[in-house]
Amino acid sequence: MPSIVFCLGNQESKEDDTNSETDEQAIINEIIITVTGLVRLVGSEPLAQFVIETESGDIYYLPRAYRRDNPGLINSVITVQGELEVIEMVTVDGKHRIIENHLKNIIIID
Known about the structure:
By secondary structure, the chain is mainly β. The radius of gyration is 16 Å and the shape is globular. Strands 1-2-3-5-4 form a 5-stranded mixed β-barrel. It has one helix spanning 64-69; strands at 25-42, 49-53, 59-61, 77-90, 97-108.
């Protein structure tokens, strides 16, 4: 059985060229959105994170501190508003990419 190995680079960006084409992790855009969905815990300790999964299957990562401050929200349906930060990560060879939706500065609406 063939296996796939992802090698994600982690290049620290300099303040003067944070959006350069050579960065392996790039912020695509930032907008304020409202999201409703089920709060789930994904990943394994110590890096597990809260996410909101919408009915359409979209995944939005919540800030790590949010998990620490709101442990009782797992398996709850909530509505939040926050800044959407879309992050694209590309493998060093450029053959694979992962796009993650992260919410920051969130406010619970319901």
